[in-house]
Design a protein that fits this description.
Elements: H1 3-18, E1 27-31, H2 46-61, H3 70-76, H4 91-101, E2 120-122, E3 125-127, H5 129-136, E4 142-146, E5 156-158, E6 169-172, H6 175-187, E7 192-195, E8 200-208, E9 214-219, E10 231-235, H7 236-242, E11 245-249, H8 250-253
Parallel strand pairs: 4-6
Antiparallel strand pairs: 1-8, 2-3, 4-11, 5-6, 7-8, 7-11, 8-9, 9-10
Helix pairs in contact: 2-4, 4-5
């Protein structure tokens, strides 16, 4: 989502989410490791930043630190004829882009003004962007879940949103299942890419306020601003009302006993 537009609607978007969070005292229950908060600038590519942030947290949990370039993925969008001029999209599309074109480290390409590298140097080894991508995001490793009450649960359904310009299908489950799966994944150290119709962020922790109300701690992509240096607190109530999709490690998703599926993304 465009950062400037986001700033104009941030009060509307997060008022319910935070319930004037400055009046709350948050107690952190879980805080997973994450790479430095980045700034998407005026682009509408929050979905890339959120998905890469989730992958980064996933790797830190495994003891393997990576810091990925959203600019590389954004640059590759120029090769996609169906990509809208806005460059909007969804988390699973970032996965598809990585699988198709590869990815590189943030240091190698911090902005789209930098040329996309043909080689990735990591820990004394040399990779192509595609080889490096397979080392950080294996084919079929992630799955996207959505909530559509008009579709049958546990079926693969198309999310009928303009941002889903690849027309891929997501696994349809109840919002209660999405919340339970997300919470369990975060408590187990996994990264989760969360999306609404307006914005996308990575979930990096869980907290509660002085009244015991639960919140997800979100890593935003608007720079290290605000009271929490680039983090946001999203209430479970907001999550229930506004979640469009979450994308997470398939193993983390399958931890929920009610989640049974065989189709891949």
């Amino acid at each position: 989502m465009n950062k400037i537009f986001c700033l104009l609607v941030v009060i509307a978007v997060f008022c319910e989410c935070s319930r004037r969070e400055e009046n709350h005292v948050f107690t952190t229950e879980v805080m997973n490791s994450y790479t430095p908060v980045k700034d998407q600038g005026s682009s509408q590519t929050c979905w890339i930043y959120a998905m890469l942030a989730a992958i980064e947290t996933e790797h830190i949990m495994r003891g393997d630190s990576v810091n990925l370039s959203a600019a590389f993925v954004e640059k590759m969008l120029e090769r996609e004829p169906n990509c809208p001029p806005s460059r909007r999209g969804m988390g699973y599309i970032a996965i598809e882009m990585i699988q198709k074109y590869g990815v590189c480290s943030y240091d190698a390409m911090p902005t789209t003004a930098t040329h996309a590298p043909r080689q990735v140097f990591m820990l004394g080894a040399v990779y192509t962007p595609q080889e490096f991508a397979r080392s950080v995001c294996a084919p079929g490793e992630y799955i996207a879940l959505t909530f559509d009450i008009e579709e049958t649960y546990y079926n693969m359904v198309e999310c009928h949103e303009p941002d889903n310009w690849m027309k891929k299908k997501l696994l349809n489950v109840s919002i209660d299942s999405i919340l339970a799966i997300t919470e369990r994944a975060v408590r187990s150290g996994h990264g989760v890419c969360w999306e609404s119709k307006r914005h996308a962020m990575a979930i990096v922790g869980i907290a509660h306020d002085e009244k015991g109300r639960k919140y997800f701690i979100m890593k935003n992509s608007w720079g290290e601003h605000g009271r929490h240096n680039g983090l946001e607190y999203m209430s479970y109530r907001y999550f229930r009302r506004h979640t469009l999709a979450v994308t997470l490690n398939r193993e983390a998703a399958s931890m929920a006993s009610t989640l049974t599926y065989s189709a891949s993304m």
